[in-house]
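The authors assume throughout that readers already know how a fold can be written as discrete tokens. For illustration, here is how one protein appears when written out as sequence plus structure tokens.
>
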Amino acid sequence: MTLALIDATRHPDGLPADTQIAGLTLIERTLRLVSVVGAEHAVVCTGETQAAESLRPLVDATDADLTVDLLAADVGTGFEELQERDDGESILAVASHVAYRRQLVDRVHEAVASNGSESRTLAIGRGRSPVSGEGIAPLVAADRTGIDTIVEHLSEGMSLALDEIVERVAGAADIIDEPRGWFVSVVDEESAQYAERSLWDDCRKPVDGIVARYWNRNVSLAVSRRIAQFDISPNVISAATFPTALVAAGLATLGTFWAFLAAGIFYHINGIADGIDGEIARVKYEFSVTGEWVDTVTDDLKDVLFYAGLGYGAWSAGLPSVAGAGPSLWASFSGVAVAGKLISMAGYYSFLAARGRGDMYAFQWSFEDDQQGEQSFAARALSNLKYLTKDDFAVFLAMCLGFVGLMPWFLIFAALGQVIVAISVVIQRIVGIET
């Protein structure tokens, strides 16, 4: 069990704890962060009694899955009071005027809370800061022994902030390096803007395809920045954007040039909008397994419905297919694409369900295991071909084909791509990683 100790004593007068960063006040952002990292209880050190009274409404309004107490004292006193408790809790200490990359906090917390052979008693984190470049963050994780070490380094009667405590205990702590981790002390408008940009930039994933990286993500982030100011959950966003997929599939069944073109545009709009719910969840720490499943299932249904609608539209319109073959071949391509998609869904859904997850990025590909050493030719081929079937590229290709009157030909690409992915998933389920 982890208890979070939050230093709320260093908010500058111009940027108090109710300053909003990407749709959340600084204090709520901190409480949500420690909650998703694993804390079940938080003690907010406010300094003076008057500050505690002003923070109470903000804390009460916070939607975080943990209990919160206010302590009218500095964070050093907080460590001393927690030392006297004999409840076996480890402590994660953060500052509410600092915006952190979640992975940095996660790694420092796990270094102490893992209970493994390499578990530390006292850990601090090193990441990137816009002020000092690479540096030590105001971030501490400690077990009961580590708490004793911290208290030993405190001076009697001296009021210390968390960054000062970190500086004092640095020599006795394990430093956890996180090269991609960052932290921003929000002390003025410039740093507040930097923190917000950093949070949104973290939504750009290394696994994004070329279309998502240079187009889709830019558009979705622009929309997400505006939506974040409102209290709208990611699940509501998923439900609100799914009708564009239904419209795309419905238009595709009509079988005309203009209907195909409109279908491709709506299909692409849904592909862009699909990123919004995840971006909001990431930036506002609104993660849930239900949300993961809603996002994954709606994204998969978008493809199944579009393949089926496009196949029906090309067949019912009597459009000639490959090498002058009859329209029934479009229906065959559609059936192969739908079947391949359903096989893939069955494979990775069973994997995710067994692990209590719903996020496709949690699915592990055996041929991409870095620990396997030199890959076989088949493994390399599957790995490379999988990137050619990325959703962002496929959806963009469908729209482009619609503009030149060749929309049904997308079914050839879809059928081939879904067969490749289905084979990959089946191989994974047979010889896959079980960690």
